[in-house]
Amino acid sequence: MLKLTRKLSRDTLSQIAALEFDSVSVDGGRLKLEWSTLKSRSGDAVEDILWWEDNRLVGFLGLYAFGGPTVELSGMVHPDYRRRGIGTKLLDQAIKLCRERGRHKILLVIPRTSPGGQALAESRRGVLDH
Questions:
Q1: Cβ–Cβ contacts within 10 Å for residue 7, how many?
Q2: Selection from 76, 65, 63, 69 nearest residue 28 by Cα
Q3: Tell me, what's the pLDDT at 129?
Q4: Cα separations (Å) of 35 from 14, 24, 40, 41?
Q5: What is the 3-state composition of the chain as percent helix, strand, coil, each rounded to the nearest 5?
Q6: Which positions ≥6 away from 39 have C-beta within 8 Å?
Q7: Residue partners of 5: CB distance under 8 A and separation at least 6
Q8: Rounded distance, CA 97 to CA 90, Å?
Q9: Distance from the CA of 11 to the CA of which of 38, 51, 107, 129 falls in 20 to 30 A?
């Protein structure tokens, strides 16, 4: 189930950390989750999109706007839950939020070691930037 959130609880942050560990264990590399930002969300706007199944966090996508025109998106889907459309639904919701806020430059941050992330970006006509 998709859930939009303005501020992350300690429990949710712990579940994001566990999800990150599971994802990196399978894919290698590292994720750009900006932990200091996640821990200090203002709560003024939805900046994180979560996917829950059976009270377990299995998908996460964070929006990071650092003052410039570009919004960075970074997240993951648990390896056991991939290929079910969760990543697509998280990304669709993030793009919708960005557009509603008048933000049209989006950088989807994906590790080069993630074939699933790369496939998701390519399916959306993403262009390798750096």
A1: 15
A2: 76
A3: 63
A4: 11, 15, 9, 10
A5: 40, 25, 35
A6: 8, 13
A7: 12, 46, 47, 48, 49, 50
A8: 11
A9: 107
